[in-house]
Design a protein that fits this description.
CATH superfamily: NAD(P)-binding Rossmann-like Domain
Helix content: 40-55%
Structural class: alpha/beta
Shape: globular
Strand order of the largest sheet: 2-1-3-4-5-10
Number of domains: 1
Radius of gyration: 19 Å
Largest sheet: 6 strands, parallel
Order of helices and strands: EHEHEHEHEEHEEEHEEHEHHH
CATH topology: Rossmann fold
Strand content: 15-25%
CATH class: Alpha Beta
CATH architecture: 3-Layer(aba) Sandwich
Distance between the termini: 34 Å
């Protein structure tokens, strides 16, 4: 099975490449700029067609949440129009698409975890552009799986865990918001889930399984406790450590509003595909140990 992933250097793309090496019947091919540019629709079909996919994972996106507030046209061009064009290409080629979306499509006012049936109400340009992308994908290819996830981290690229470890090398105390709640999600775990789901979608009896799902780390925490756990593991491994000081979101103003609660329920996907992400503490431990042992003091 040949899985083509849009985006070459993102956390999920690199995780998919790494995890697919352990699967003898799966080949993951990444494609991105300049050959595939989501802001340039004319590049999309030729780039995907050239890769000869059996399935496409639409992972490339405009992810600069704060910057998007000042660049809404670019954010929508990539996350909405670009994502829709990828789905149109897969429909034309007759292959399914797994499109990655975000917990930021919700406004964070719900008590408890969000389910797929809950009404989206994004607070930011980024969230609105990703919601528009979901709708464009669903309209373009009926054989779609839209996966919302949140608080993604990994040994690759830029992410919260790597930032916290880097700051701990420089400071004795780090201020982290304690009033934003969600599910820390390992890109490695997400890649494993996508590879499993992709294999299941090959079965003819799974045609009814296409649709919208959530897939995020198991368990709920706040940003500050997320940071504390990562730093505790780092200290045990001989890596950087700092104390975490709780602050409110209001004390850390940013251009884009974040939902106070973006926790996602993954129960629907577990029922449909028999797949759930590991508990977040375990996955953070795995990621931090890997970073401390290999790369934290070089390229965080």
């Amino acid at each position: 099975m040949r899985i083509v992933v849009t985006g070459c250097g993102g956390q999920l793309a690199l995780s998919l490449v790494e995890r697919a090496r352990e699967l003898p019947d799966v080949e993951v091919v990444t494609t991105g700029r300049p050959h595939l540019d989501l802001a340039e629709r004319a590049t999309i079909l030729p780039a995907i067609e050239r890769c000869r996919p059996d399935l496409v994972v639409s992972a490339a996106a405009y992810t600069a949440v704060d910057q998007a507030e000042g660049e809404p046209e670019t954010a929508f061009a990539v996350n909405a129009s670009g994502a829709g064009a990828v789905a149109e290409a897969t429909a034309r080629l007759g292959v399914p698409i797994i499109h990655i979306s975000t917990d930021y499509v919700f406004d964070g006012t719900k008590q408890g975890s969000y389910a797929e049936a809950d009404t989206p109400a994004p607070l930011s340009v980024y969230g609105a552009s990703k919601l528009a992308g979901e709708r464009a994908v669903a309209a373009a290819n009926p054989r779609h799986l839209i996966l919302r996830t949140g608080w993604l981290y990994s040994p690759f690229g830029k992410n919260f865990v790597k930032t916290i470890l880097r700051l701990a090398e420089e400071r004795e105390e780090i201020a982290v918001v304690a009033d934003q709640w969600g599910n820390p999600s390992s890109a490695i775990d997400l890649a494993d889930g996508i590879l499993d789901i992709s294999a299941q979608l090959k079965r003819p009896d799974m045609d009814a399984a296409f649709g919208l799902y959530h897939l995020a780390g198991t368990g709920l925490t706040c940003r500050a406790d997320f940071a504390r756990h990562a730093l505790s593991v780092s200290r045990a491994e001989g890596g950087p450590f700092a104390q975490v000081r709780d602050i409110t979101t209001g004390a850390f103003p940013a251009p884009a509003r974040r939902p106070a609660n973006s926790s996602l329920s993954s129960a629907k996907l577990a029922q449909a595909f028999g797949r759930a992400m590991p508990v977040w503490e375990h996955s953070v431990e795995c990621a931090v140990k890997r970073l401390v042992r290999s790369t934290f003091n070089q390229t965080l």
